[in-house]
Structures are given as structure tokens and as C-alpha cells.
Amino acid sequence: MTLEFSTSDPDATGRAGALLGPLLVPGDVVALAGDLGAGKTRLVKGVAHGLGVDGPVTSPTFNLLVVHPGTLPLYHFDLYRLEHEAELEDIGFYETIEGDGASFVEWGDRFPASLPADRLLVVVHRAGDQERRFELVPSGRRAGDLAAAWLAAVREDGAPR
Ligand SMILES: Nc1ncnc2c1ncn2[C@@H]1O[C@H](COP(=O)(O)OP(=O)(O)O)[C@@H](O)[C@H]1O
Ligand SMILES: [Mg+2]
């Protein structure tokens, strides 16, 4: 079965992210794949909203990691500019993702070996000017449960699919 949903504009993507926020528990890792401008950051902004994060959520492209305090900490990584996997140690990647928050890793598919065995990969496809398709590829039991719960919430919310 394919796990996926679509959104028809950036706000719908934000709403989908906001529905994921409350489902997250410490140690959850969500890797985000998709071209520049696909909507990875837009989704994480929605997640931040769903976690009650105050203030702007900007892309961590230049600093690789931005931490947002919320109902649980949101660790927002962007590995676009990371050249070597070894640099992940320098930014505390491995300790952080095992920590007390939920981690979102843009371009996480660039370094798949660095991701924990149990993680949810979200592949964002551009399906039209404003239409995006979100494909959920869970690895492991927790990620499978998270994907199913998120999809159910999105469908209940009535987002187009
Ligand atoms: N359905 C949609 N969901 C998310 N973003 C969309 C959508 N339709 C258009 N967009 C636009 O696409 C861009 C997505 O940017 P961003 O989230 O920063 O992408 P990424 O982080 O994948 O590079 C934004 O300019 C946003 O307004
Ligand atoms: Mg981005």
C-alpha cells in the first residue's frame, strides 16, 4: 500500500505538518527528501506550529541545525550544504537525534547511513505549480505507526489526496 497524501497549496502543507506535530514523541526522526522548493521547509514550519513553537522557523541551510523549544524540542536539520558525513559528528547530529526531541532532517536522504534504523522518510514530489505529493516511506515499527497515524489525521482533516 502506498502511503501518501497531496496538498494543493502551501497552507495545506502547513496544516498537514501541524497535524504531525502532536503525534511526535522524543527520539522520532523524520527525513525529508525532494528538490529545492519542493516544500520540505514549509512542512517543518507546520510541524513547529503543531508543537506550539513561537517565532519564525527559517531554513537551517547555513547553520545546519536550528533548535526550537516547543511542547517537545524540534530539531530542524538541513544537510544540503554538508559535504562529508563526518561533519555530522561536529554538529552533534547523533546525540541530538537520540535526545529529548523530534528531529526533522532536510536532505536526510543524502546520508542515509547516518539515519537511525527506525525513521520516517518523507519524499516531497512537485505534482504541479502548487500541488505537492507527500510519499511516506517508514522504516521500522515506530515510523510505521507514526506514518499511519499522520495519514489518518490528514485524511480526517479532509486534505485533498
Ligand atoms: N502545496 C505546496 N506545499 C508547499 N509549498 C508550496 C506548495 N505550493 C507552492 N509552494 C511553494 O514552494 C516553495 C517551497 O519552499 P520550501 O518549503 O522552502 O522548499 P524546500 O525546503 O523543499 O526547498 C515555497 O515557495 C512555497 O510557497
Ligand atoms: Mg528547505
The CATH architecture is: 3-Layer(aba) Sandwich
Q: What's the arrangement of strands in the largest beta sheet?
A: 1-7-6-2-5-4-3
Order of helices and strands: EHEHEEHHEEEH
Helix content: 25-40%
In angstroms, what is the radius of gyration?
Answer: 14 Å
List keywords for this structure.
single chain; 161 residues; alpha/beta; 5 helices; 7 strands; globular; binds adenosine-5'-diphosphate; binds magnesium ion
What does this structure look like?
The chain has 5 helices and 7 strands. The chain has a single domain, classed as Rossmann fold, CATH 3.40.50. It has a 7-stranded mixed β-sheet. It has helices at 10-20, 40-50, 87-90, 93-97, 141-157, and strands at 4-7, 29-33, 65-68, 74-78, 102-106, 119-126, 132-139. The protein is α/β, with parallel strands linked by helices. The radius of gyration is 14 Å and the shape is globular. Bound molecules: adenosine-5'-diphosphate and magnesium ion. Magnesium ion (MG) is lined by residues 40-41, 59, 78, 106.
List the helices and strands and how they pair.
Blueprint: E1 4-7, H1 10-20, E2 29-33, H2 40-50, E3 65-68, E4 74-78, H3 87-90, H4 93-97, E5 102-106, E6 119-126, E7 132-139, H5 141-157
Parallel strand pairs: 2-5, 2-6, 4-5
Antiparallel strand pairs: 1-7, 3-4, 6-7
In short:
The protein is α/β, with parallel strands linked by helices. The protein has helices at 10-20, 40-50, 87-90, 93-97, 141-157; strands at residues 4-7, 29-33, 65-68, 74-78, 102-106, 119-126, 132-139.
